[in-house]
Amino acid sequence: MLIGHEGPWREWRSALAGERIHHAWLLTGKAGLGKYSFAEQAARELVGSPPDQAQHPDILLVSHPPKDDSEDRKRAEGKPFEKARSIRIAQIRAMQQRLNTRPTLGERRVIIIDPADDLERNAANALLKSLEEPPNGTFFILISHSPARLLPTIRSRCRTLRFPTLPDEKIANLLAEHMPDADAATRAAAATAAAGSPGAALKFVELGLGAPASVMRAIMGDGDPAFLQRGKLAELIGARPDRERLRAVLDLARAELVSGIEALDRGHAVERIAIHQELVRLTGEFTTYNYDPGLLAMEIGTLLARAGQASDRAYG
Predict the structure, then answer these.
(1) What is the number of other CB atoms lying within 10 angstroms of the CB of residue 177?
(2) How big is the chain by its Cα radius of gyration, in Å?
């Protein structure tokens, strides 16, 4: 059992022991809390699959497909492939075709959708029809990092299981156990940047984001008037980073910005919140508008420098 899953498991198994279990479940919480691992094990309990069985024919996963035909060929060859940004209506239609047949091995079938937040609008509407009139023995487990992005009608048809974030000390212990070669400063920065998500903390260390975190703190400390730290940040991010690394850098910048915000005076805190909202906007736009990594690094650095300048005004 993963750390922090004790409550969700109690609620799930209590429902499983009842006379009738709800047909649709929504697992909510930050990314990196292990919701997919929970969904997979819960699905196995529903269909009666042993934990060591590699794949069960009555557990269907609907997730991001390959981006295009070229990436699909890579997947078929067992190579790493780039995923599409959304879950498409064709995938939901294909899943619904499966629902016209009986389960393969028993009386139950489970559909896992990960993440349901990324369903295209038409795909979400198509899914809603299955949630409204599910075939006998069919159960849905939807994983959501941002449930507000889901249709209200989808949320209303699901029973929600909430997954809590973890305190920094638990994440630090986890990193010490699983990433013993990482230095203490990197582990501490990862625990702060992860904002309660152990998966995000592990990814932080894997992506080597300790040095960018130090530069971000330096920018916030002195405002970077000569632009030297911003140039260093661009170098550390790299000329051709993948989407995962850029997203992690933006997550890190937001975490650094709000770290210790409760100790600031009201005016400075309000300024930081406004800057944080601009970083949220950047996070939502950077894949859509294909930002140049160097320019994106400069934009991040400029926003963090504003926080440093606000600090000077507040305390100088």
Answers:
(1) 8
(2) 22
* CATH number for the domain running over 6-162: 3.40.50.300
Written as tens digits, the pLDDT of the chain (316 aa) is 688 899 999 999 999 998 889 999 999 998 889 999 999 999 999 999 877 777 899 999 999 999 888 888 988 888 888 888 899 999 999 999 999 999 998 899 999 999 999 999 999 999 999 999 999 999 999 999 989 989 999 999 999 999 999 988 889 888 988 888 888 878 887 887 788 889 888 988 888 888 888 899 899 988 888 999 999 999 998 888 877 788 888 888 888 888 778 777 888 888 889 999 999 888 878 766 566 888 888 999 999 998 876 544 444 4
Domain borders along the chain are: 6-162, 207-315
Query: Considering the entire predicted model, what is its pTM?
Result: 0.79
Rounded to whole angstroms, how far apart are CA atoms 28 and 8?
Answer: 10
Give the HSE-up count for residue 24: Cα atoms under 13 Å, Cβ half-sphere. 19
